[in-house]
TrEMBL record:
It comes from Thalassospira lohafexi. Residues 5-146 form the Saccharopine dehydrogenase NADP binding domain. Pfam families: Sacchrp_dh_C, Sacchrp_dh_NADP. Residues 150-396 form the Saccharopine dehydrogenase-like C-terminal domain. It comes from the Bacteria. Signal peptide: none annotated. SUPFAM superfamilies: NAD(P)-binding Rossmann-fold domains (SSF51735). This is Saccharopine dehydrogenase.
Amino acid sequence: MKKNVLIIGAGGVAQVVAHKCAQHNDVLGDIHIASRTAVKCQQIIDSIHEKNALKNPGVLEGHGLDATDIDATAALIEKTGSQIVINVGSPFVNMSVMSACIKTGVAYLDTAIHEEQDKICETPPWYANYEWKRREECEKAGVTAILGIGFDPGVVNAYAKLAVEDYFDKISSIDIIDINAGSHGKYFATNFDPEINFREFTGTVYSWQDSKWQSNKMFEIKKIWDMPVVGESQTFMTGHDEVHSLSQNLDVPNVRFWMGFGDHYVNVFTVLNSIGLLSEQPVTTAEGQEVIPLKLVKACLPDPSSLAPDYTGKTCIGDLVKGTKDGKETEVLIYNVADHKDAYNEVGSQGISYTAGVPPVAAAMLIATGEWDVKKMANVEDLPAKPFLNLLNGMGLPTRIKDANGDRALDFS
Ligand code: NDP
């Protein structure tokens, strides 16, 4: 049994991770939250106490930490006796947190691919630029490192694995569709860190088509999908982490990612991008001050976690998988519907943070009990899907399936 969790970051997703760890501290043990701005850790701790979320009386502490400092991170892991680190800080800290985990021999989880400040949308597959270079190191140290265990990437990878395991002999395409039909009432806001959100869309859109990489521009390829509960939704083909692992790890010739955007988002994005305000490269003002436009835009936009109290509506995220089973053409949609208000009532967060924050806690529980403690680096599709999806069914993110036999809940117990 591995016990005691150190959460890195104290943003929107970390709030959900901390609440869910508290709800399951009988399995997970002590909970520590460490972030750059220590006061944000304390705010999360206060909200856990307000909701009486700790299942058992236990340790719940906050710490100030610069997670780019490997030695300081390793020292905190040792001081807190943490055996599982859930990294939901910015993707810029992934490699340093992973180094600290390898140094101390503890399990590592994250929810997004590592990024360097001055580079965007690097050569595909993205995982090969940083994470996969450290596979041997993890295996040698016996370190379990689970990559991209949010919702997308994360749960959608498990849906793809489930399709491979149970529903197909041969898969021809996986289309991952992410619709947020919620409304936050602000003129403009992003649902997670604006800097990371925009960086996903300002470079090349890579998709895996006919078993090779295809390059497009953002908002070049549009498609309307009719999804359960949220109905017909406008989406655009987008570059995304899971395309970069599923394309390499599953024998599937077409893997694409589609994200829903309203016309208003597209307009605002196009204006900001066209005039250079989404650039990650520094510019110098007439006064000689060096500014990174994207960081300035982030500073002006609402903090995504501040959207939670007024957010209404639902999300629908899933995998539309096509292929053959027993010689017949088959199609299944494996998906989840989440509700912004329900998330707020339970953990004080909006639905996007909720869908991203619950899965790493389920994964941490599977590491704690040994089922996913594989002692090497793994993407989610490398691991058995059912124990994970089974846990999520009882943790607020139930899985449903829609196929020729109808639309129904999937129960793996
Ligand atoms: P936020 O920006 O709200 O939170 C990030 C946190 O990381 C902040 O508390 C920030 O501190 C902290 N941080 C940044 N740099 C450092 C550092 N050097 N040392 C210590 N702490 C640091 O982001 P979100 O909570 O919205 O997202 C967190 C992660 O989850 C991101 O990687 C994001 O890409 C990912 N994500 C994944 C999803 C999925 O489904 N897979 C969906 C949504 C998000 P400070 O408060 O000082 O800025």
